[in-house]
Specification:
alpha+beta, 2 domains, four-stranded antiparallel beta sheet, 4 helices, 4 strands, extended, Lipoprotein
Length: about 150
């Protein structure tokens, strides 16, 4: 009679653990909702002509793009939001257009990627200094982060 009671107790513990595991859902596996970029209506897009002059242009090869994607995924993780006591600064950091990116290809196996915040874009007073408003990533040719400064 003692054996079935013990079996029931173990079975209920296993069922409880299984339910806890299922309650975590896809977040346990790192699933994040992908938000597609907004697109304008086709009629509006047809009225836009290709420009003849450009203010700036950026071109990068495939390995450089791969290194940038690694740094972006670490610096701006999917679903992550800035937090802190200063609500204005938090809103500023949650905007990607606040940050400038500089990519330096040292050689085929080393990329240096700098993220720096331009707080003027948020309406902060000119010359405002915020510590920790950027990072420098060293990425190797295999897409591994060597260092973050």
């Amino acid at each position: 009679m003692n054996e079935p009671t013990r079996l029931r107790r173990h079975a209920s513990v296993l069922v409880g653990l299984a339910l806890c595991g299922l309650a975590q859902g896809c977040s346990y596996f790192g699933y994040y909702k992908y938000e597609r970029p907004e697109r304008i209506p086709k009629e509006v897009g047809e009225r836009i002509r290709d420009p003849l002059t450009f203010v700036a242009a950026a071109e990068m090869d495939g390995p450089t793009l791969a290194a940038l994607q690694v740094a972006l995924a670490d610096y701006f993780p999917p679903g992550a939001k800035a937090s802190g006591n200063d609500e204005y600064l938090v809103r500023c950091y949650n905007r990607r257009d606040t940050f400038d990116v500089r990519i330096e290809k040292v050689n085929d196996d080393l990329y240096v990627i700098h993220f720096s915040a331009d707080l003027d874009r948020c309406g902060m007073p000119p010359g405002s200094v915020v510590l920790g408003a950027g990072a420098t990533y060293l990425i190797d040719g295999q897409g591994r982060i060597l260092d973050i400064r």
